[in-house]
């Protein structure tokens, strides 16, 4: 779909101005060469082959081989690797209510030289947003924007390390409002850990580790009920849908159509359902901002081009399977819908940079009108009138929670959960407080000592 020029500050807002840059042409990848259908060359004799070989040597001179020498990697005094100890990063609940997920692991610095001095050692958690339709096609800054989420300073002072493996733990609680990792048709959002160790000689040892962040929204206790009215008819549809749906697995849709019968003095008109079609649409939106060099193309700073793409990720035609009751005046419809896993559906996402993914369930029904006398209701006559009833519902596509535990449930007690003071204890009894004869007290002490 064509793009739209818009100005955004923090979150993208639509602008009424248009630009010639709305249509961005994409370059198709080169196709593979077609298979040859010509017959193979004829087999030549050994003598002809040897004579031609000598002739080529005499005319062409020394024969050079086309094989390239293997590339030798430069020597590194150390190598970096990483071990992730925390479970998969899964945010529970919506971005407004999620507390995030814990990321923890260990950085391994394997020193290969006898000794090396590390002046600085740090790691960053970066978020990279990539648009597939940048303002300038050949500009890397227009296509990719990187922001820092968290930074670890592992070593602050120079440290001399001997040969061997050295491990450094790290951990952080990722905020729950971050959007999940998304690979869409118009934009991509990725997260990765980038570690850099700088030696005393100025050599940098780097490591780039990609992490995957997902979000799971827990289903509500009750299903979602919606009512749709189709004027100018008296038809009303009541639809029951689950609160959340998943990329794998089906979900049930229950619908009741009421008002299908209109009675008169000696006859009645009724609507009969002939065909039902449902489909699930995935709508992706993104904003392509311009870098500092190409802001003049859009007329100033804080502007970008909005892009939108819609695709159908599931559909089905249903011609039978519902129950029609003209005496009660309703039609009961029930069917199972599911995402097509071959289309790689993307879960719902909402980001501040203008990227969003949402899903819509579209239901279309074809109904035809019939006329029947009250004395012969089993002999209806088609009137030739038909209508197409179309309605849509928003779907919340999310990942399954699985066996994971929310950070709210696994975190230790907070200070505000601890009472203000420790519990009180009874005052100890001393000899001075005991009035009267001490014989009874001696008997009690002797009894305790015998019992022990």
TrEMBL record:
Bias-annotated ranges (Basic and acidic residues): 67-76
Disordered as annotated region, ranges: 1-76
Entry GO CC: cytosol; plasma membrane
One Gene Ontology MF term: protein-macromolecule adaptor activity
Biased composition (Basic residues): 54-66
Signal peptide: none
Gene Ontology annotations of biological process type: ubiquitin-dependent endocytosis
SUPFAM superfamilies: E set domains
Domain of life: Eukaryota
Biased composition (Pro residues): 30-42
Domain LDB19 N-terminal: 122-296
This protein's name: LDB19 N-terminal domain-containing protein
Protein source organism: Lophium mytilinum
